[in-house]
């Protein structure tokens, strides 16, 4: 039934797309957006260079309002809003450039004109879990579904990477060849080279929460799990951390954007634990973070640029690896201690030892082409004369 529903949806999409292809291509770029960061950096670089091109944003609901504020030509994508869907199909069929940051299943029913370029910028610097053609859940998919995935991958004319290592992953995940890889670096990482913007961000964060400036900051940023609900996603014993660390540290909790959960911290951990789940840009939190606690997220691949301590809270490693698959052996590939419970976390926090050489190697492995000018390089390649 699911495959039937998808087939009906894609057939309808194809009908509208074929109709709109009768219109001429326009000097227009259409963004398909699941997460705002990379697309925003590219858009701002287009503005900075004064490039004369129409810009359309087709957004996931979680970042719709971000782009709606800067451009009236902003529409929902993959939603129940029929008007937005039809308008979106029109723009996809008549734009010379399509820039996307995720997998969009409806691309399986499109056949773009020869002059159209489709650029995959992805939404993270790297990846620990397997995806695309290497996703272990593909074993449970139908042959029709696997063919549909491949039709989407075939749309990618260029795939932007921050390193050769991630390029090799994309080749396996998207079944693409080396000549599709574009080594311009990841636009959102430009933030880590912009000292003026970082200082502005710090001032804003400290003004809104002065205690962040008074103590060392621990950021807990776990990834999304398919097999957990929102409440189960917080595995830290906050009370134990409060008792052991409150004098010197504060704890910020930033759950994955796919998890909608407002933590009820009450007054039990006053001036220690703070819910930053709704804070839009995790990179801004990273620059005030002294110690990062995460698990299978791609956040460490950007945080490594700051050369600071990381703790990997892999309390469910066997389950996560079975459910998602991992590109590497986890324990030997992450640049910090792997822990299983809060007692071990506290112990590592209080231990001042940091393997800086390991962090340096990790940063190069995932972000060797991210040098502060990734947005400029990408715009010059895509829109230059």
Task: Give a quick summary of the entry.
The protein has 385 residues and is of the alpha/beta class.
Write the layout of secondary structure elements.
Blueprint (H helix, E strand, L loop, with lengths): L1 H19 L5 E8 L2 H14 L4 E6 L4 H5 L5 E3 L5 H13 E6 L16 E4 L22 H11 L4 E3 L3 H11 L6 E2 L12 H14 L2 H4 L1 E5 L17 H8 L3 E5 L19 E3 L6 H5 L4 E4 L4 H5 L5 E5 L3 H8 L5 H4 L4 E2 L2 H9 L5 H12 L6 H10 L2
Parallel strand pairs: 1-2, 1-4, 2-3, 4-5, 5-6, 6-7, 8-9, 8-11, 9-10, 11-12, 12-13
Helix pairs in contact: 1-4, 2-16, 9-14
Describe the overall structure:
This protein is of the alpha/beta class. It has two domains: 2-185 and 372-383, Rossmann fold, CATH 3.40.50; 192-367, CDP-glycerol glycerophosphotransferase, C-terminal domain (Rossmann fold). The protein is built from 16 helices and 13 strands. It has helices at 2-20, 36-49, 64-68, 82-94, 143-153, 164-174, 195-208, 211-214, 238-245, 282-286, 299-303, 317-324, 330-333, 342-350, 356-367, 374-383, and strands spanning 26-33, 54-59, 74-76, 95-100, 117-120, 158-160, 181-182, 216-220, 249-253, 273-275, 291-294, 309-313, 338-339. Helix 5 (143-153) links the parallel strand 5 (117-120) and strand 6. Helix 1 crosses helix 4, helix 2 packs across helix 16 (374-383) and helix 9 (238-245) packs parallel to helix 14. The longest helix has 19 residues, at 2-20. It starts with a helix and ends with a helix.
